[in-house]
Design a protein that fits this description.
single chain; alpha/beta; nine-stranded mixed beta sheet; three-stranded antiparallel beta sheet; binds iron/sulfur cluster
Length: 384
């Protein structure tokens, strides 16, 4: 397995996450902070988000801006442009900053893609989820497999040279063969970055009821593991490099924004329900969209649950998230940063995983093997 180790450096600049909580319809498995699109509320929300951005920055360096949701591509290109401009006015956004827009295929067309690009977006992340129409229907998604392929072509035609596609595995009624079909179609499409997620069914997800009603089931656990390994093997063979448990890319196309989450970085989450972590302080914004808008417009604070992490928590968090990277975590630099002897504290509990061959200690790096990634949660539990 190729390991991306040096393609990025730990960045001291901030990342900005901008939450857009609107969707055209609500998928039956989704528990993100989102609601149905409503034009009036959207207008007020964009104004509030712009105001929050302008009041949050004091010229600090920023090298990533990430529009997540919800479905941020439901905003007009001019609105995305307005929000990017607010980021540029309030922060020191670097000229080559990565600016990502999460996009749903059904919201895309050539004109909109041109518009988003002109507005300053330089990376698009499409929520494709599957290249099989039967699977997309079961998930309640609005697009078809062909629309996903067309949306990708539209983004390329608009000049985007950094496009990510998401796929979900372990879907209801999905066999390992169906999964491979989606992965192969994705490889034919040829994105620069791919995220592979396992469907997680939260308690009370409407999809659970639909599955019971329709008699749909998920493949056994062993098949889910096989899907993960087979998907990654196909992507390896197609020249992608795995750099994180769920993410692969072409050389140099890692998600620089998401890398901040795994390298002990700092980011500000702006918008309703967005989470922030900056220099060991964590907080989140109020989640209900209407309440967020009302608070911003009344000049009231939107941050709730502000918490200063202890040194131990910061270290544990750095190790826990860093282990998600294929290159692993530099234990010695984390130890220096937090003044703790990591091996002295965690060595005994880590050793059985090293003995089992799922965890490797290579100089200062501690990293999971690909088999180890299947049991990542067990290993990470050592740190929390
Ligand atoms: S489009 Fe995304 S955010 Fe919106 S409901 Fe579906 S999964 Fe959730």
């Amino acid at each position: 397995m190729a390991i991306v180790k040096d393609a990025w450096q730990r960045s001291s600049a901030l990342g900005l996450y901008l939450h857009v909580p609107f969707c055209s319809s609500i998928c039956n498995y989704c528990n993100f902070n989102r609601g149905l699109f409503e034009s009036g509320l959207k207008d007020r929300y964009v104004a509030a988000l712009e105001r929050e951005i302008r009041s949050a920055g004091q010229g600090e360096p920023v090298d990533t801006v990430y529009f997540g949701g919800g479905t941020p591509s439901l905003l007009e290109p001019a609105e995305i442009g307005r929000l990017i401009q607010a980021c540029r006015d309030a922060f020191g956004v670097t000229r080559d900053a990565e600016v990502t827009l999460e996009t749903n295929p059904e919201t895309s067309n050539v004109q909109r893609m041109d518009g988003f690009r002109a507005a300053g977006v330089n990376r698009v992340s499409f929520g494709v989820q599957s290249f099989r129409d039967d699977e997309l229907k079961r998930l309640g998604r609005l697009h078809s497999a062909d629309r996903a392929g067309a949306a990708f072509a539209e983004a390329r035609a608009a000049g985007f040279d950094n496009i990510s596609l998401d796929l979900m595995m372990w879907l209801p009624e999905q066999s390992t063969g169906n999964w491979s079909e989606s992965v192969n179609r994705l490889i034919e499409v040829g994105p620069d970055h791919v995220s592979l997620y396992l469907l997680e069914l939260y308690p009370n997800a409407p999809l659970k009821e639909e599955m019971a009603r329709a008699g749909w089931s998920q493949a056994p656990d062993e098949d889910a593991a096989e899907m993960y390994m087979a998907g990654l093997a196909a992507l390896d063979a197609a020249g992608y490099e795995q750099y994180e448990i769920s993410n692969v890319c072409r050389t140099g196309r890692e998600s620089l924004h998401n890398v901040k989450y795994w390298t002990d970085g700092s980011w500000l989450g702006l918008g309703c329900g967005a989470h922030s972590t900056r220099d060991g302080v964590r907080w989140k914004n109020v989640a209900p969209t209407g309440e967020y808008v009302a608070r911003v417009m009344a000049g009231q604070p939107v941050a709730v649950d502000v918490r200063t992490m202890t040194t131990d928590e910061r270290l544990e968090d750095a190790l826990f998230t860093g282990l998600r990277l294929a290159g692993g975590v530099d234990v010695e630099s984390a130890a220096r940063r937090y003044g703790v002897d990591v091996w002295g504290r965690f060595g005994d509990e880590l050793q059985p995983f090293i003995d089992a061959g799922v965890l490797l200690r290579e100089g200062p790096q501690l990293r999971l093997t690909r088999e180890g990634m299947l049991v990542a949660n067990e290993v990470m539990r050592v740190f929390v």
